Amino acid sequence: MDHSQITTIEDIDISESLVSFDDVVDLEKDIDEFGGDDQCEIMEDKDGDCREYNVHEIVGDDDSEFSETPILGRVFKTAEEAYDFYNDYAEGKGFGIRKHYYSKNTKTQQLYRWRYVCSKQGVERLNEKRVDVHNVKRRRDTRTNCLAMFQIKLVDESWIVENFNDTHNHPLINTPTKVKKLTSHNDLRRSEYTKSIVCKLYQEGLTSSKISKVVNAMDKEVNITPVQISTIISGQRKNNVGRESQGIIKHFQRKSSLDGAFYFDMHLAEDGTLRSVFWADGRSRASYAQFGKVLVFDVTYKINKSKFLFAPFVGVNHHEQSTLFAAALLEDETEATFKWLFEQFRTCMFNKSLVAIITDQDKAMGKTIAKIFPEARHHFCAWHIKKHVMEHSQALRTQFKDSFDVDFREWYKSRSFHESESKWEAMRTKYDIKAGSWLENMYNSRHHWAKAYLKDTFLPE
Predict the structure, then answer these.
(1) Are strands 263-268 and 158-165 parallel, antiparallel or unpaired?
(2) pTM for the complete prediction?
């Protein structure tokens, strides 16, 4: 099975396999389906040994909620009822739970197994950024690889507890108020009242972290995190699929009726939600046809309310004035988004070639420019270069005072390749510049910003 094709839990289509909420685990060879009169299953008992149980023998007759009757073998009408039972049990014991995986039959598309685990199951995973970059502040580890779990299986339209482990490797919480703050027991954060407050605050432009502080301050029993805020907002956006783009479409249709050269396109996600939108009017397209030799592209602007990135395409006219060629609203700054955007821009501008394009030092943007505009020289913005120099060379500037600024400026303004290389070697020796440092990376990308390497390209001052 190709795990890379799995996107959402509803898309997973497997037969007798385990699907994890954290990881897609290897396929598990299951025992034959229950059927006929010989309905047996292999289960793990409390001592960790495997034993064969008869389904009719393991069903308990005691209906009391948390009696001395073993939990292994209890019967529930639905999986939701089993989840609520284990969640109530966990609240009484002092720990939280979460859904871990389910098994699904390919032919019938029916779920036949669920496993619920302690919220501290598993271990924290570090992505490449957190592994490679030492100055990234890590979040507090909450996972302890706890093995406590509650597993149920569908048998004759009922759900039976086939595996249960109540051993925890971490202290349990004894304070009821603290237990209520655990994710699985915090019902107030799921209430419609809380969701409505979150959505109203989001519409006013507050970030997820600020919204969580406001909501938690309003009600001490609610302990909602910024991640949960983002989940609520994402869910509300999915409930409004198509609505957020209707107003944009109607506005652009009115513009098109007044301007025959008006161009726009929209990038939608698989569920129909708006990801990005691009537009250019007739006047802007005419300006590009006349002055579109050099293009400045920047995505540093952000609309506070909608959280979309505003990306203008700007040039210079014959009066040395800035002129707008096109504009876009972007969901993110990924390579896929830039690819869609630059393809739209090129189509809108009749595939007219560029001489140069000026951007910041975004790597995803640089890769896309090389593919969509191979004939254009990619330059880094001088303003961003100066800003980054101030940020990354603070230690050298403090240690060597003004000498570093002078040497860097002379290297930056070198008039020839030979002069630039010789001054770089002198700087590397004088300031002990290490391999992999920011200055070393700037040297490797010198063809995009150093004046000695840009003399063959026309740029308006």
Answers:
(1) unpaired
(2) 0.48
